[in-house]
Amino acid sequence: SLSLSLSLSLSQTFDKILIANRGEIACRVIKTCKKMGIKTVAVHSDVDSSAVHVKMADEAICVGPAPTNKSYLNMDAIMNAIRTTGAQAVHPGYGFLSENKEFAKRLTADEAVQIAQDIGYPVMIKASAGGGGKGMRIAWNEEETREGFRFSSQEAASSFGDDRLLIEKYIDNPRHIEIQVLADKHGNALWLNERECSIQRRNQKVVEEAPSTFLDGETRRAMGEQAVQLAKAVQYSSAGTVEFLVDSGKNFYFLEMNTRLQVEHPITECITGLDLVEQMIRVAKGYHLHLKQEDIPINGWAIESRVYAEDPYKSFGLPSIGRLSQYQEPLNLSKVRVDSGIQEGSDISIYYDPMISKLVTYGASRAEALSRMEEALDNYVIRGVTHNIPLLREIISHPRFISGDISTNFLPEVYPDGFKGHQLDANQRRELLASAAALHVSAQLRSQNVHGPLRVASVPVQSNHWELCVELGNERHQLEIKKTGTTYKVEVDGGQVEVCSSWNLASPLLPLTINGTECMMQCVSRDASGVIVLQFMGTLFRVRVLSRLASQLNSHMPEKVPEDTSSILRSPMPGTVVAVSVKPGDTVAEGQEICVIEAMKMQNSLAAAKQAKVKSVHCKSGETVGEGDLLVELE
Question: Which of 75, 120, 466, 479 is the most buried (most CB within 10 A)?
Answer without folding.
Answer: 479
